[in-house]
């Protein structure tokens, strides 16, 4: 089992940047594929980005491609999401998620993930 704790959210102006972190504890971090999801009030939880166990492969939602970068440091048991050129529509609670896997995969469906953090709030003002 793994425990996930997000941090780094906050209020930022349009065009600004934030870096979210997700600290993992428990089982060896490198056995998990990781993902970031977000949920705005009254909306479903949406996929943002995912990364495979080794950090060599990534996948992004079209809405964030070119602006956000997912990365991980397995030595520090930490997942990151660098968010640049933020827009008001990026406002949401952001969640990191982990999937225990033996494969080099990076799932996009929330149903594929076994463990979730509590979320960190990001607000982008216009």
Give the topology.
Blueprint: E1 2-7, E2 10-13, E3 18-26, E4 32-39, E5 45-51, E6 58-60, E7 68-73, E8 78-83, E9 92-100, E10 115-116, E11 120-125
Parallel strand pairs: 2-11
Antiparallel strand pairs: 1-3, 3-8, 4-5, 4-9, 5-6, 7-8, 9-10, 9-11
Q: What report would you give on this structure?
A:
With 126 residues, this protein is an all-beta fold. 0% of the residues lie in helices and 52% in strands. It has strands at 2-7, 10-13, 18-26, 32-39, 45-51, 58-60, 68-73, 78-83, 92-100, 115-116, 120-125. The strands form two sheets. Strands 2, 4, 5, 6, 9, 10 and 11 form a seven-stranded mixed beta sheet that branches. It has a four-stranded antiparallel beta sheet with strand order 1-3-8-7, with no helix packed on it. The radius of gyration is 13 Å and the shape is globular.
Order of helices and strands: EEEEEEEEEEE
Provide the structure class: mainly beta
Quaternary status: single chain
First-last Cα distance: 40 Å
Shape descriptor? globular
Cα-based radius of gyration, to the nearest Å: 13 Å
Report a brief summary of the structure:
This protein is mostly beta strands and about 130 residues long.
Provide key terms for this protein.
single chain, 126 residues, mainly beta, 7-stranded mixed beta sheet, 4-stranded antiparallel beta sheet, 0% helix
